[in-house]
Every structure is written in C-alpha cells, then in structure tokens.
Amino acid sequence: MSFPFTLFLSAFIAFGVSLLLGQRTIRYLRRLKIGQQIRDDGPKTHLDKEGTPTMGGVLIVFSIVVAVVLFPPVTNNNIIMLFATLAFALVGFLDDFIKIIAKRSLGLRAREKLVAQFGVAILIAIYASARVGTDLLIPFTKQVLVLPTFIFIPFTAVVIVGAANAVNLTDGLDGLAAGSTAISATVIGLISYLLGYYDLAVFSGVLVGACLGFSWFNAPPAQVFMGDTGSLALGAALATLATLTKTSLFLPIVGGLFVIETLSVIVQVIYFKMSKGRRLFKMAPLHHHFELLGWAESKVMIRFWLISIIFAVLGLWAIL
Question: Which of 68, 53, 61 is nearest to 88 (CA)?
C-alpha cells in the first residue's frame, strides 16, 4: 500500500470514526450526566456552558486507536505513540472523573497529576534514548545537538509533560485546542515525512483527522468538551512525535500558540505575587483576557488559529 494512500485513508478513517460516533458519544455522556463544571470566577459568558458533556476526549483517542490498528504493520514508533496517547488520556480521564464525582472544577491534585505524567514521560524518554538516540536537530540550521543520556531523559520528560499541560491550558474555548492541535500536527507530519519517518507522518495524519472530526461537535457553541482526557493526550502525542523525530527543539516553534498560552499563566502568577495582588492580564490563560476585553469567543478562536498557523509555517521553515 503506497504511503500517500495509507496517509489519507488513515486520516479519513480517524475523521470518519470521530464524526460518526460523535452524536452517539454525546448522548451517552448526557445520559451518564457527565457535564462540565464551570469556574465561577471566569468569563460570565461561560456560565451557560455548565453541564455541557465533557470527557469527549475519549472519542478522539478511540478514533486514533481504530485508525492506527486498522493499518498494519503497527511499527514500534506507533506502539510508543499509542502508549503515550493512551497513558496521558488515562491521567486526564481520572482527573475528569474526579471533577464529575466531586462536582468541582478541579480534579486530581497537582502533585498527583505531575507524578503520573512524569512517570509516563520518563518511560518514553528512556525508550527514545535507547532506540532513537539522544541527538536533537537544531532549528534553522543543519546542525545536531547531542545530549548526554542523563540530560536527554529529564529534558524529554519535561518537554512531554510541558506540552501536555500547555494544550490543556489552551483548551478553554470552543474549538481552540482541537483546531490548534490539528494545525501543529499537520506540520509535524510534514516534517516527519521530510525526515523519512513515514509511520509517524501517518500517525500525525491520524491525529489531524481525529481532531477535525471532533471539531465538528466542539465548534462554537460546543456540544461536547474534550476535557483533560483529550487535551493531555493530544499534547503528549505532539511531544512524543517530536521526540521520536528528533525535533523536540522545533516544538516550541510549531506549537508557539501553546507556549504563549502557558507563558501568560506563568507571567500572571509571578506578577500577581510580586505586585501583591495586581494582575497583568484580566485573566489567564491569554484567551480569557481577550474574552474579558469583549471579544466574541469565535473571534478569539479564529485569531488564535491564525497565530497557530503562523507559528506552524515558521516551524516548517525551520527544517528546510
């Protein structure tokens, strides 16, 4: 089976599974009363979202698994990709489950979540150091940075956990995280193809297809949210793709929007503490700041998508 055929058919199947099972999944989540808990200190326009089905990330993850399994041979790289996606989805699932049972907007304690995430990320990093190597491509150059194993493993773990939580922070507006992930995954797929990692290019296509299928139901006004189940899985998948293609240093460029969203939270916290209670932004992450300035949710989403596209193109340029 030719590479282009496998790529497009795999992506189409992930898209199709997500699209076809979307309404059924939403009805099932409603029946189980699995609804989103909304923070009362957030934008007032979000209060109407209270009770919207969440944990829709199970639809994304299931679509990915089906598409990958249907197209053998399943390579070692794809097995690791599935492991990363499923393991982080499980952490997110537990977090979402606790939120629903306790009827609150916070689930697992931060320490519990980080311990689980780093445990998985370290396993991925150990595998990568042994099977892929510890060398990293340097953006905008033809140079390679070779890291000692004892540095590569914690560095890679931080990249994976950081990416997972960055996508999680970005998942605060209808359609934003899924659309931005699809954009980043498209470019990572192109980079994978250019570097000869055809199996990972196919997985990237599957990721794009699953996100687009989910976006049909997550577009404003969202019928379902992905929850931590989806956002942590997507972020980990992007970072693991970068790890296996030796392009971890490209990830902050390709996923520049996620970096900006994360930095807005960090800067907000630091400024709040240093200024004794003052805020730099009306609210963090940054997308909420613009909402509170009066921007419509759809306007913020589309403009942030455009920013994501700019960063993605810049990331592609960095490999050429």
Answer: 61
Q: What is the phi/psi pair of residue 69, to 5°?
A: -65, -30
In the predicted structure, residue 38 carries a pLDDT above the cut 80: no
Q: Would you kindly state where each structural domain of the chain is located, as residue ranges? A: 3-317
Cβ-contact 171, 215 below 8 angstroms: no
Q: Taking a C-beta distance cutoff of 8 angstroms, is the pair 18, 37 a contact?
A: no
Write out pLDDT tens, residues 67-104: 999 876 789 999 999 999 999 999 999 999 998 887 76
- The full 3-state SS of 109-132, as one line of letters, equals CHHHHHHHHHHHHHHHHHHHHHHC
Q: What's the rounded Cα separation, in Å, for the pair 24 and 5? A: 29
* Largest CA-CA distance found in the chain, in angstroms, rounded: 62
3-state secondary structure of 38: coil
With beta carbons less than 8 A apart as the criterion, state whether 152 and 117 touch: no
Cα(319)–Cα(261) distance, integer angstroms: 24
On whether the CB atoms of residues 176 and 301 are closer than 8 A, the answer is yes
pTM, two decimal places:
0.96
**Residues 265/284, Cβ–Cβ less than 8 Å:** yes
| Count of CB atoms situated within 10 Å of the CB of 133 | 14
The alpha carbons of the chain give a radius of gyration, in whole angstroms, of 19
Q: What are phi and psi of 74, to 5 degrees?
A: -85, 110
